[in-house]
Amino acid sequence: MPDISYAWCKAVLKENAVYILLPFKLNKLKLAISFFFQLTKNLMNCVLNLVWNLMKLYDLLCLEGLVRGLQVFKERIKAPVYKRVTPNGEIQKLIITEETARIRPYAVAAVLRNIKFTKDRYDSFIELQEKLHQNICRKRALVAIGTHDLDTLSGPFTYTAKRPSDIKFKPLNKTKEYTACELMNIYKTDNHLKHYLHIIENKPLFPVIYDSNGVVLSMPPIINGNHSKITVNTRNVFIECTGTDFTKAKIVLDVIVTMFSEYCENPFMVEAAEVVFPNGKSYIFPELAYRKEIVRADLINKKVGIRETPENIAKLLTRMHLKSEVIGDGNQIEIEIPPTRADVIHACDIVEDAAIAYGYNNIQMALPKTYTIANQFPLNKLTELLRYDMAAAGFTEALTFALCSQEDIADKLGLDISATKAVHISNPKTAEFQVARTTLLPGLLKTIAANRKMPLPLKLFEISDIVVKDSSRDVGARNYRHLCAVYYNKNPGFEIIHGLLDRIMQLLNVPPGEKKGGYVIKASEGAAFFPGRCAEILARGQSIGKLGVLHPDVITKFELTMPCSSLEINIEPFL
Amino acid sequence: MADGPVAEVLLRQLATADGGLDSAELAAKLGVEHQAVVGAVKSLQALGEIIEAELRSTKRWELTAEGEEIAREGSHEARVFRSIPPEGLAQSELMRLPSGKVGFSKAMSNKWIRVDKSAADGPRVFRVVDSVEDEVQRRLQLVQGGQAEKLGEKERSELRKRKLLTEVGSWRDRPFKPYNFLAHGVLPDSGHLHPLLKVRTQFRQIFLEMGFTEMPTDNFIESSFWNFDALFQPQQHPARDQHDTFFLRDPAEALQLPMDYVHRVKRTHSQGGYGSQGYKYNWKLEEARKNLLRTHTTSASARALYRLAQKKPFTPAKYFSIDRVFRNETLDATHLAEFHQIEGVVADHGLTLGHLMGVLREFFTKLGITQLRFKPAYNPYTEPSMEVFSYHQGLRKWVEVGNSGIFRPEMLLPMGLPENVSVIAWGLSLERPTMIKYGINNIRELVGHKVNLQMVYDSPLCRLDAEPGPPRTQGTA
What we know:
The complex is a heterodimer.
Chain A (H helix, E strand, L loop, with lengths): L5 H10 L10 H11 L4 H13 L9 H11 L9 E3 L6 E5 L9 E7 L6 H16 L8 E7 L7 E6 L5 E2 L8 E2 H7 L19 E5 L5 E4 L3 E2 L12 E7 L2 H15 L8 E3 L1 E4 L5 E4 L5 E6 H8 L5 H10 L3 E5 L4 E6 L9 H12 L19 H15 L3 E2 L5 E2 L1 H4 L14 E2 L9 E2 L4 H9 L8 E12 L7 E12 L5 H14 L11 E5 L5 E11 L2 E9 L1 H6 L6 E7 L5
Helix pairs in contact in A: 3-4, 8-10, 9-10
Chain B lengths: L3 H13 L6 H8 L3 H13 L13 E4 L1 H9 L2 H8 L5 E2 H6 L3 H10 L3 E4 L7 E4 L7 H10 L8 H9 L3 E4 L26 H15 L3 E2 L6 E3 H4 L20 E3 L8 H12 L14 H5 L1 E3 L4 H13 L6 E10 L11 E12 L3 H14 L5 E5 L5 E11 L4 E11 L1 H4 L8 E9 L1 H8 L14 H6 L19
Parallel strand pairs in B: 6-10
Antiparallel strand pairs in B: 1-5, 2-4, 3-4, 7-9, 10-11, 11-15, 12-13, 13-14, 14-15
């Protein structure tokens, strides 16, 4: 196995064109995994275990974290201890004013002193910030990061909020000064920044950070100032994170400083900064908090289904960046959770790390002795039985979408949308997803329209759920299980659909006639039906649906050319 | 076509013929097989209104052995008549003649002869007429001469009743065109079940065989609370973003939530508890009330587990569901805004990761998948989590077949489940294994109104544990 170094990892990743190994979305991660499957088995296992875990480990969002993780896992190095140090000189101070309360109330800060960038390190530093912004920072809505060349600034710093017209500065990579209002306009066409504008747009005050000379560090969460821009040659970096989620802001700051303090003159030492809140309270950041948990070894064994000694388990956990030792009665393991492992919030997270280090595929499989008697959900049982007999009756099953346009369930059927009791979706990307269907008919008619070239007659059915508003339900809406069938041919074929109804009733053991819970059809009308060719179906003393010959307007609106008769009933009364 | 020239000759002949042509005669005249003429007629008919044809059947008759004897020797009654001399014959003697019995009664009914019962030496038979016309013999001779059609239907049937004449089919001496057994048969008219739902039936069957009870999932609309919060999925989680989830405008909010339980969930999220640090954020009830189209059936599992937790004492349970879920995602060849999720859940004391893997092995074996690998994964509500991969022979690579894990204590304990109860769960989509199974690359060819019904008509039985057949080739593009 090659040496796990920064250069090696980078080379392997680049070579295999999955440089976006540490992605924001799961599907890209899978790409990375399929690549790792091609590596040799040994190497694969160790890489995989870590790469898989990286989904939630923010410290693996950059190569520095990945390399360090692999090295610790292979026991090449011990996990570094991250320390916060108070500077010899004056501590950097960030003062939050109360104006920020209504827009972006939290801020944290830290300093990386005497750091040495190279081109690669610098790129990785910028990339990590971007990934954090996309990921844990929720596209900068929860947290926004600003990094600055401390040598160009002079503290203390002030984090305040001002009217946009009162904020004027030279933003990153621009040569002249703009007001915040002007910037918001300029960035409307910026493919990168336009996605963040909504976070503060239309707010009376915009957040902004100044140094003691009135130099703008940044206007979070949009843009930094050009004055304090960091370069490959920057030696001292001032990091500020502002946001609406204090916990996440602290995690983000911890991740950045733990990853890049490696390149400081005193590696893994981070210079503290003081943040003064509007209430006068002052806090020191970064937190870099180490937490201790005690978990019993037999609990881990029991949850995973293995039998390892407490010592072995402690060793497994240590390889996963969780420094552990056996204490007390020899069955207890004390685990130190480093600031890089913000994901560990419960003993079950520790159990998982032990299982990952042990190797999932090494765990002995077993069958639980849980004895149970199976039951079908009665509605699904009835549905399954009916489906088979509908097919036996010569009808073919369709499977159509539960979401559709308003037009499908209203306009095209000659109804007004307000008459449908439909539930409406607030954020559809296209008209296809405006509402949940209130009837199965449109889906079947669209299926016919897509199959006009097929030989006639077309006989289709579907048994599935529709959705309507219902204030008696906890969510204010409910499903009904419907059965819908259509007959499409050169003649309307009402008798065919009527015969199908008779057959369905026969199958459900519902006799014809109004007595003894039987069924009848009675002349009725419906906007979707040809006048005089529509009947209501009454069974078990209630109306269960309608059948009839569809109105020519309906036929036309669904882009059909032949007559069609249809039947739609609610099958729930027959449970 | 081979009968092209025959068809041409046929048309020419028809043009000059009055009152049509007989196909058999024409065949004889042209010296071709009768089938060739029939074929030409049929192909001309297929072109539309070019010729008219009607089906005529001819019958052939032949004499029985008795009939042949009669044609040669004369009918029994004629022979009886002829054997009576002018002075008559004793009836007893007459009866001893070969044609005696049959001929006597027939000759009597023809009134050719008479019986004198008063004669001294017993009844005696005398001629009544001088000569007779043997009509039966004449008719049989006609048939023998191939002129059966000159007889009336009544006359023929009379002869047939007397077993002198039999009808013979023309098949005995006709040549038959051989069948092409490579040709397809005619498919019966029938209805068909949808292939994806056939797969659904099989998955239900597998769960039922394994003793899993089906959960109710007939509620597409769900509150954020049951869909996310109850599962310990934080309110800022990306899945709760407008870009990933369909929220409702109307009804926008859930009307009722189980408030006691809601408070426990709120506390676990915002402050921790049950051994957890929590997420330490400001949990909002408004966010939990937001209605949406459920993004997974795990919301239904959460409801089922909550109901289970209210039953005291705790009884172990195995649950499953297969139903639709909705995602506000970008659509592509393998992703639609709605798909079916399959989910299995086991709740019991002391379940381990090894148990989860054991159940998965049994489940996937029933699907015909035996080579499994488990990879660490990240799910917000399970810990540990594992993705399940199987080696796909056809694609020659490991493909993801499911996602699984042990539900987090932060999800289970607020429901009221006992502390030592673990709940293992796994899920997969119904569409993906179906697409792999049937070699379908675009999900729109499988689900929704744009499917080709021919595909539905042609789809085979769903036998998940049987060897996959070759990819389907039938059906129109």
